[in-house]
Amino acid sequence: MTRLPRPQFQQLGVIGCGLIGGSFALAMKRAGLVKRVVGYSKSPSTTELAKKMGVIDVAAESALLAVSGSDLVLLAVPVAATEATLRAIRHLVAPGTLYMDVGSTKADVAQAAQRVLGDLSAHFVPVHPIAGKEHSGVQHADPLLFQGRQVVLTPLPENDHAQVQRAAATWAALGCKVLRMTPENHDAAYAAVSHLPHLLAYAYMQAVMRQPSGREYMELAGSGFRDFTRIAGGDAAIWRDILMANREEVLHQAQRFRMSLDRLEGLLRTQDAPALEALLKPISDTRNAWAPAFTTGDEGEPSSKF
């Protein structure tokens, strides 16, 4: 494997000083990849806390000012805010600067960049770090958050190759395993392994809660219920945005799930125990073979990213 050159930046501009943006800033400082960090968040109290914690060195009063003078810019905002954020900074977008986002969907982000930035989208590399925590906010920022985790780059057709290499080298220097996919393949994959599972967890939790004795049932629940419903505790606003942004792929995966569930229900109705076991066993074997090889430390998608 070819070792990527170690990148060096004079100034990092972080737009969105939450968990991911804050962790990225701390990780960049810890790795010695950046000399100065300027940060902006919609909430002045968030930016002030980030400064007090040493996450950022300077608090910017606007997204545009966070970009000014930066040779690396990270958009750590919810996917629904990506296009508006790009519009707010486009007047200072320059070819010498690398721009990245950290959104959980990529086709919509890629399209937003192409619409807003035009030819300058060559310098915007969409990125999805597969990392997060149960709790959001800059107070939970962690410089080691990305170590050993996967990060997916989804380069645009018009991307400058050198900028894609800089993006890959930056995340590799933070200890990430860097993968590359098209935005469309990314969204299809994560609809299957992350977005639909979250939707199912929300639906299942609601189904239990709506039963007359649902609360009593929950008091009897053990680790299986806890594990299955953990991701239903994710931030509702974040998951609204993700599910809506990737709705076509999620609906496609939901159809596949419904077919599998229908088949299992059919065997229960006919009381065909041998056939039910025969269907369950390869599923169980596949899950057990996959689990030991899982090394990223987070199953698909964090409950909180911002």
How is this structure best described in words?
The chain has about 300 residues and is α/β, with parallel strands linked by helices. Helices cover about 50% and strands about 10% of the residues. The strands form 2 sheets. A 6-stranded parallel sheet has the order 3-2-1-4-5-6, with helices on both faces. Strands 7-8-9 form a 3-stranded mixed sheet, covered by helices on one side. β4 (about 70-75), α4 (about 80-90) and β5 (about 100) form a beta-alpha-beta unit. α4 packs parallel to α5 and α7 (about 185-210) packs across α11 (about 245-270). The protein starts with 8 loop residues before the first strand and ends in a 16-residue tail after the last helix.
List keywords for this structure.
alpha/beta; three-stranded mixed sheet; 12% strand
Q: Over all CA atoms, what is the radius of gyration?
A: 21 Å
Extract low-pLDDT stretches: 295-300
Oligomeric grouping of the chains? single chain
Beta-strand residue percentage: 5-15%
What's the total count of β strands?
9
- Report on the biggest sheet: 6 strands, parallel
Instruction: Determine the mean pLDDT.
Output: 93
Instruction: State the shape.
Output: elongated
Quick rundown:
The protein has helices at about 20-30, 45-50, 65, 80-90, 105-115, 160-175, 185-210, 215-220, 225-230, 235-245, 245-270, 275-290; strands spanning about 10-15, 35-40, 60, 70-75, 100, 125, 125-130, 150-155, 175-180.
